[in-house]
Amino acid sequence: MKFLLPAYFSTFDSKTIQSNNTFNAVEPLVAAGIKVSNFLPMAAEAHRDLTYRRQAEAREAIRQAEQQAIRFAELNKTKEQVEREHLEGEARKKRLREQSELVRSAGSTLGKSRAAQMLEGIGDINLLAD
């Protein structure tokens, strides 16, 4: 069974001490006659704390990534909305231009026919006056 000790201890198992750090604080303890097995509960707790801390950090990183993805999606959505509104505005302007041209041409045609009618009416009045 392997345990991860705090930074000042090295990784070891219950049978042998394995040094994986340049500074190994367990060997002086063994040399001083202190039983390493006394540190097993502390090592297990340190390992558990480290595991929980890493899990919490991973959860926080995932939460931040999700929030960033949501922000990017909203930003892209906003860009798409702006583009869509711009295109709709351009189409609306084009329709209004076409309608105003139709009204203008119809108005000029109507104006010409009214003017012709008025001239005819004036001609009729002139004929009656003669």
Characterise the protein shown here.
The protein has 130 residues and is mostly helical. The protein has one domain (2-129). It is built from two helices and two strands. The protein has helices at residues 26-31, 40-129; strands spanning 2-3, 12-13. A two-stranded antiparallel ribbon has the order 1-2. A hairpin with an 8-residue loop joins strand 1 and strand 2 (12-13). The longest helix has 90 residues, at 40-129. 5% of the residues are buried. Residues 7-23 have low confidence and may be disordered.
The total of beta strands comes to: 2
* Biggest sheet layout: 2 strands, antiparallel
Supply the number of structural domains.
1
Order of helices and strands: EEHH
Stretches with pLDDT under 50, minimum 5 residues: 7-23
Q: Note the beta-strand portion.
A: under 5%
Could you say which structural class the secondary elements and strand pairing correspond to? mainly alpha
Measure the end-to-end span: 130 Å
- Count, helices: 2
Task: Give me the side-by-side strand order of the main sheet.
Answer: 1-2
Mean pLDDT: 70
Gross geometry: rod-shaped
Share of helical residues: over 70%
Radius of gyration: 45 Å
